[in-house]
TrEMBL record:
InterPro entries, sorted: MFS, MFS_trans_sf
Keyword terms of this UniProt record: Membrane, Transmembrane, Transmembrane helix, Transport
Subcellular location: Membrane
Organism (species): Cryomyces antarcticus
Membrane topology value: Multi-pass membrane protein
Protein name: Major facilitator superfamily (MFS) profile domain-containing protein
Length: 295
């Protein structure tokens, strides 16, 4: 498509991807519904069943819009901790996606071969991402998996930083990519699991992802050409970001375990609350006495 419309070939990649996004967004606007009650494709019986399942899933907490829940999210220090964890993960995420071909090329591969050699690390990362998600769901543990994946990524960047062996460096790419990419869905799930109430959760997840995406701005200054071919400052910077994330993940895991233990000692077990008792605290979100955090 080079020269088509007077534009270089690479620009059409962004044009076509952008057009596809707009088309999908337009279709989604017409066919996606905010609530079961507004879904025209559901029968009254199906709407009632979906509503029942949603009620069970949100533990009887409020789901109506109220600006109070917006401010609750902004004032929740736990969400801000997750924002810092996220930018510590998303900065390496964007750096890897932008510069992995450049890093692999320094191992002695040509341009085309370097592009191909970036595929295997992503395949391995896909396996770890799915496996980690399934296991964390089954065990109801998020923090330990995030700590493990952060340490995996740190190991990979240390291998890239410290070794002069091309083989070791390439293996380090596997560790780095698998560790970073696996933590993206883990982090969103962990933060969302621990925010009570639909509006507060929506705002909290937006804060989480929005702040993390600032890592894309930072990533453009990580691997500067003047540091080629070793890129030691870049590797060291990402190790620092990941170290911040793993430290905060350890802190949050410890805090949430302690808080759950405190609530278990002071209040009844969540399943012992009646519907009326839960309704009395439906506006408290994750501060409700029957709410328990996912650790």
């Amino acid at each position: 498509m080079k020269g088509l419309g007077g534009r270089p070939g690479w620009s059409w990649i962004f044009i076509l991807e952008g057009l596809l996004t707009l088309i999908v967004a337009g279709v989604a606007f017409l066919f996606m519904h905010d609530y079961p009650a507004t879904a025209k494709f559901l029968t009254p019986e199906e709407k009632h069943e979906v509503q029942r399942r949603l009620e069970l899933d949100r533990s009887s907490l409020a789901d109506e819009f109220n600006v109070k829940y917006f401010w609750d999210a902004l004032k929740d220090w736990k969400i801000w901790i997750h924002m810092l964890i996220t930018i510590g993960i998303y900065t390496p995420l964007y750096s890897i996606s932008l510069f992995l071909p450049t890093i692999v090329k320094t191992l002695g591969y040509t341009n085309n071969t370097a592009q191909l050699m970036t595929v295997p690390p992503y395949i391995v990362a896909c396996f770890f991402c799915i496996t980690g998600g399934v296991l964390s769901d089954r065990t109801q543990q998020r923090g330990l998996f995030m700590i493990g994946f952060c340490l995996m990524a740190i190991t990979g960047f240390i291998m890239l930083l410290a070794s002069s062996s091309f083989t070791v460096k390439y293996i380090g790419c596997f560790f780095a990519v698998a560790g970073v990419y696996s933590n993206v869905p883990q982090g969103v799930a962990w933060n969302g699991n621990n925010i009570g109430g639909s509006v507060k959760r929506g705002v909290g997840i937006a804060m989480h992802v929005g702040f993390g995406n600032l890592g894309g701005v930072i990533s453009g200054f990580i691997y500067l050409s003047k540091y080629s071919p070793l890129y030691r400052p870049g590797h060291a910077t990402l190790i620092g970001f990941l170290t911040m994330s793993v430290t905060l993940c350890c802190f949050m895991t410890f805090y949430l375990r302690r808080e759950n233990a405190r609530r278990d000692a002071e209040f009844k077990r969540p399943e012992e609350y009646s519907t009326e008792e839960k309704a009395m605290e439906r506006g408290k979100g994750d501060n409700a006495s029957f709410f328990r955090y996912t650790v």
